[in-house]
Amino acid sequence: MQTTTAGERKSAFSKLTYHIVLLLGALLSIFPFYWMLVISTNDRSAAFHVPPILSVGDQFFQNFDRVLERIEFFEALGNSAFVSFATTISVLFFCSLAGFAFAKFQFPGKKWLFLIVLGTLLVPQQLSVLPNYVLMSKLGWIDSFKAIIVPGMVNAFGIFWMRQYIESAVHDEMIEAARVDGSGYFGIFLRMVLPVITPALATLGILTFMNVWNDFFWPLVVLKNESNFTIQIALQQLSSNRDGLDYGMIMSATFAATVPLIIVFLIFNRWFISGLTSGAVKS
Where does the ABC transmembrane type-1 domain start and stop, copy by copy (predicted)? Predict the structure, then answer.
């Protein structure tokens, strides 16, 4: 008869504790989304009910109808989708090229230039609002999507992330062999580097898409016409109500605005996790 040693019991207990902690962490992370769903499917008094209501109701479409009466929800959703996709695609393109250059090329001032890029991470967004606004005004881009997309087409974090990943995942021998075969640098990037860095691109793409989608401050500054409002500005309009806040209406709109983020994450989830894990492993 096989007996269980003290070490095996201790190891099993440690694994059980580890899984319980992970489960509790997952539940704590999911609960705000569940609470948002609960409030969005009940009437406006559910947020103040004692004890709290924890069951999903049947008032979602009634709450969402009031949203459509107050704001152009789907137009704002389309604006956010356009801005988020355009910015994300440009960030993936320019940051991957810049990361490739910093990781694999040697040129004068490379280290100092990379330090300057990293230094911009220390500058709060609020400090750049005034100069960016003046620049957008002189270009005539105020109240246009260009004022949101162009300043975000490349960022320091994206360059740093791609540089670190490419440096560890792409071997110098591959690049040298391709150069011997007569390939240009851009051809090397497209044919050899791009397939290797797909997980890193997926990770950066998800993070960028979420940041742009959730951005409220800068679009609020540069957008004036309601037809150009992104979803975050449109949702803010729901908070101005003389009769008090209708939390059922607000949460139904917020839940609907969160669904695209969940869909994007679920689609690219496998590459996202792969990028976070393998990017830190040296080949």
Answer: 77-268
